[in-house]
Amino acid sequence: MKQALYRKYRPTKLSELVGQEEAVSLIGNQIEKENLGHAYLFSGPRGVGKTSLARIIALQLGCDPIFDISEIDAASHNKVDDDHDNKDDDIDKRQRRRRRRRRRRR
């Protein structure tokens, strides 16, 4: 199966992000000092690195990219029902992860 270019070439480290020097510097310093905020809002046009930066932060915090990271596109998920669906999906992911951990322990 072919992999999308944005997935193949997505940066995985802060040092690999291009064109976001100010954001990289700010986030990098906060990670080093263990002084991250409780929430970040990234905005801007398509292709500037919003998702990449968010994923890098999550990985630095020790999140599992498969189970712990949920992307929400506010342009297409802008109703209350969409938010409820996302929460249900997150609960399902957590339950599947717990089942896998229990099976590994046996």
Element layout with pairings:
Layout: H1 5-8, H2 21-32, H3 50-60, H4 80-105
Structural account:
With about 110 residues, the chain is mostly helical. The protein contains four helices and no strands. It is globular, with a radius of gyration of 16 Å. The chain has two domains: about 1-70, Rossmann fold, CATH 3.40.50; about 70-105. The model has no long low-confidence stretch (mean pLDDT about 80). The chain starts with a helix and ends with a helix.
Element order, helices and strands? HHHH
The CATH architecture assignment of the largest domain turns out to be: 3-Layer(aba) Sandwich
Helix content range: 40-55%
Number of helices: 4
Question: In terms of per-residue confidence, which ranges show pLDDT below 50 for 5 or more consecutive residues?
Answer: none
Distance between the termini: 34 Å
Give a concise summary.
The protein is mainly α and 106 residues long. Helix content is 50%, strand content 0%.
